[in-house]
Amino acid sequence: MLLVVLVLLLPSVSDACGDPPRFETMRLRGAPKPRYGPGERVQYDCRLGFKPIIPLRPRSAVCEDDNTWSALEEACTRKSCPNLGDPVNGQVYFVNGSVLFGSQAHFVCNQGFYLIGARILYCEISENNVNWNDDSPICEKILCSTPGNIKNGRFTVYKDEYQYNEIVIYMCDPSNGPDEYSLVGESTLICVDYDRWSSDPPECKVVKCDYPVVEHGMILSGFRRKFYYKAQVVFKCNQGFYLHGSSTIVCNANSVWEPKLPTCTKVPVAVPTEPSTTHASGPRPNTTTVPSSTGLHPATTATSSHTAYVSPTVDLEPEYFEDFGIILVINNLAL
Ligand SMILES: *[C@@H]1O[C@H](CO)[C@@H](O)[C@H](O)[C@H]1NC(C)=O
Ligand SMILES: *[C@@H]1O[C@H](CO)[C@@H](O)[C@H](O)[C@H]1NC(C)=O
């Protein structure tokens, strides 16, 4: 029993100091020893990238009689990198608020200029001192070279070199065939960065969609002889027919109508299943998506005599209510 207690006490009664204290800014001079006895002294040096604080502070500690190290504070501080000025046509930002070892310098060029070199410099150890890891970058004027030529078209103004934000405008040539060229893409390109235009040049080509025919329907607007790029057509179903799909279609760059042509049928579009006697303006279930201007009700005009179609879901003009209010009341009473 006594033996066990003695063994447990052994480490604390050992006549030696523990490992010398560690510091952020200083390192032990020489190799650490396995044990330090009372009276032994350890010396510290500033770590790389650090220099002594002025006025000088003690940089050594002694193992005292009670086997603890004498008090010692950090005695070194970060070295500074040389100051950096703003580049011509740009700015430098010291994001850590200093040029001390470990800090960064970020460079930004003014609008219309682009950066050549390192965008970020680091204050690092260099030989026995600290320095920026690279030269400051420079800010060079943004210029664009001539944009690409296109088939069946041209652009103005033609130059060898363009300034930042300068534009060129493309247009299509008149065609020799029966159909004119359509310009597909952007007609205007802007010089936005070093040798970079805002987009690729457009294309000039014949884009022509087939004459759109919808059975039991008619073209409400957009009628013309030929349907070129971006031509838009709006359909309406004949009286008594319901429209399925989108009433508006557009001729796309591949000479295809988009979305596809609607159809007109005698069968109504799937109508919400809620009881038709309740509110017409309430939220509808998401079971069917009914594009705007498609027929929820047959293509009858408000003034037609088909009062049988009148139901609370029909959007009636105010005048219509005034004209037919009595009839509606009578109808409802009759039901
Ligand atoms: C300096 O600032 C950068 C960016 O905010 C950060 O990532 C980095 O850790 C900072 N360095 C020091 C030494 O504080
Ligand atoms: C119905 O559609 C709307 C809009 O598309 C959506 O915000 C809502 O969450 C949908 N409701 C259900 C029940 O799916």
TrEMBL record:
Stretches assigned to the Sushi domain: 15-78, 79-141, 142-206, 207-266
Region listing for Disordered, in residue ranges: 272-304
Pfam families: Sushi
GO cellular component, one term: plasma membrane
GO biological process, one term: single fertilization
SUPFAM superfamilies: Complement control module/SCR domain (SSF57535)
Membrane topology, record value: Single-pass membrane protein
Function per UniProt: Acts as a cofactor for complement factor I, a serine protease which protects autologous cells against complement-mediated injury by cleaving C3b and C4b deposited on host tissue. May be involved in the fusion of the spermatozoa with the oocyte during fertilization.
Name listed for the protein in its UniProt record: Membrane cofactor protein
Taxonomic source organism: Bos taurus (Bovine)
